[in-house]
Amino acid sequence: MRLFKPVMVLIVCSLMTVALAGQDWPQWRGPARTGVSAETGLLKQWPPAGPPLSWSVSSLGKGYGSMAIRGEFIYAQGTQGGNSVVFCLKRTDGSTVWTRPLGRTLDQDKGGGPRGTPTLDGELLYALSENGDLACLKATDGSVVWARNILSDFGGANPQWLISESPLIDGDNLIVTPGGRGAGIVALNKATGKTIWQTAELSDPAAYSSCIVADVGGVRTIMQLTAQAGVGVRAKDGKLLWRYPKVANDTANVTTPVFFDSTVFYT
């Protein structure tokens, strides 16, 4: 890895008819957090000269995150003026609609800035910075609905390469991984930020992964790869359902779990 300034580029080919009418991509790995798109009508190969460039921006500072897209707008995280920031851009030309600082940014020898992707849910947007600053914002103008710091509030320690999680929405709950004692994973009320539950039986430090949720044997289950294990906790109360340490390594557990056909894959 190396320090870099991300350049966001939207590429639109004149032969594509779905450029701005396509499916929304409201969070990390798409609508169902599976990495699967339902788009149709895409090109099977690029034109010989490549797709024409529609626009690009290079003013988002540092970071490693991806984009959330809905309707006319793109949401991404970066840095500006010493802060970790959420940007809202116009999908048509990349111009800035609004920015919202979450807190001070952190630097690191492998690169500074935020590592997560914002999560859209209705008219609200949720973003978690590299420093543990979690905020619920209005997607229209970036105004703050509520905010808290998951490291200070739950006694977690920032991993060596900084928090890299994209928040998960499950019903009325927002799920994040502070990695604190009795608070490896927590659920917050998405409207108020109030704590709903903590994983009393799970105190694993956070790694660099993001949670997923699925029904497992009829039980709604949050799955995560922590710094020490692949885990599953009951979505309604955080009860630990399983913990498999053998999948963890001693350096960096990064990948988002994959769930399919009653099986969860950690790597």
What does this 3D model show about the protein?
- By secondary structure, the protein is mainly β.
- It is about 0% helix and about 35% strand.
- It contains 1 helix and 20 strands.
- A 4-stranded antiparallel β-sheet has the order 3-4-5-6, with no helix packed on it. A 4-stranded antiparallel β-sheet has the order 7-8-9-10.
- A hairpin with a 2-residue loop joins β15 (about 210-215) and β16.
- The protein is globular and about 55 Å long.
- Residues about 1-20 have low confidence and may be disordered.
Short description:
The protein has 267 residues and is mainly β. 2% of the residues lie in helices and 37% in strands.
Observed structural traits:
four-stranded antiparallel sheet, mainly beta, 267 residues, 20 strands
Task: Please tell me the overall pLDDT.
Answer: 92
Strand tally is 20
Q: Sketch the topology as an H/E string, one letter per element.
A: EEEEEEEEEEHEEEEEEEEEE
Rg measurement, Å: 18 Å
Largest sheet: 4 strands, antiparallel
Q: Identify the strand order in the major beta sheet.
A: 3-4-5-6
What percent strand?
A: 35-45%
Low-confidence stretches: 1-20
Give the % helix. under 10%
User: How large is the count of helical segments?
Assistant: 1
Class by helix and strand content? mainly beta
N-end to C-end Cα span: 20 Å
**What shape does the CA trace take?**
globular
Topology of helices and strands:
Layout: E1 8-11, E2 53-57, E3 68-70, E4 73-80, E5 83-90, E6 96-104, E7 119-121, E8 124-128, E9 133-138, E10 144-149, H1 150-154, E11 168-170, E12 173-176, E13 186-189, E14 195-198, E15 212-216, E16 219-225, E17 230-234, E18 240-244, E19 258-260, E20 263-265
Antiparallel strand pairs: 1-2, 3-4, 4-5, 5-6, 7-8, 8-9, 9-10, 11-12, 12-13, 13-14, 15-16, 16-17, 17-18, 19-20
